[in-house]
């Protein structure tokens, strides 16, 4: 494990501990208040730690202004202090996460995704074996609260099973662990929604691309990414063919 991967892991885990403390000490009744407290607490902790540990690195965060200095920086940390605010605000749900990734001169070189309430952190360290897929219908990770219409069409074409769950990071991790065979997102996300999960997924031997097969790119001028596919390599041919038969939503 490189020093940067270790740091990504420590940062994601540490921010997760902050979020658990926020959740445990909250005495209010408005879920929106809990969401805001979580976002703010994790962002402040991560910002302080990054400034202390790597003061020369740039940062792109969901919860901070994009200062644009990252566009000329060699190293950029891409973070989502709390991925899945809805799930975080519904104790005891555990399908929310913290994302910490490092982009260096053109590609992701480190990443970690913590699931604090599940007491686990995944990182992009090498040496992990790809899980073996059994013969069964393809399982697709899908939003539990806002499943997009195209996924139902994709399910029909593939004869797939839909597995509902919370945050974007958790959906990608479901393919990392073998709970699902693929996660397909269309309609747009931001770089912080996928950077750390993508780094982890790549380290496990999963196929990670845009839905058209082109590579994922990060630290672009606009942090908006149109789509994402994370899949076990065995299902990629069938998934690619099926995606050509469904109408995908346009990115806003």
TrEMBL record:
Q: Where does Mg(2+) bind?
A: 62, 80, 82-83, 193
What is the protein name stated in its UniProt record?
A: 3'(2'),5-bisphosphonucleoside 3'(2')-phosphohydrolase
Q: Which GO terms describe its molecular function?
A: 3'(2'),5'-bisphosphate nucleotidase activity; metal ion binding
What is the top-level taxon of the source organism?
Bacteria
Q: What are the GO BP annotations of this UniProt entry? A: 3'-phosphoadenosine 5'-phosphosulfate metabolic process; sulfate assimilation
InterPro entries, sorted: CysQ/Inositol_MonoPase (IPR050725), Inositol_monoP_metal-BS (IPR020583), Inositol_monophosphatase-like (IPR000760)
Catalyzes what? adenosine 3',5'-bisphosphate + H2O = AMP + phosphate
Give the UniProt keywords, A-Z: Magnesium, Metal-binding
Q: Which cofactor does it need?
A: Mg(2+)
Any Pfam family hit: Inositol_P
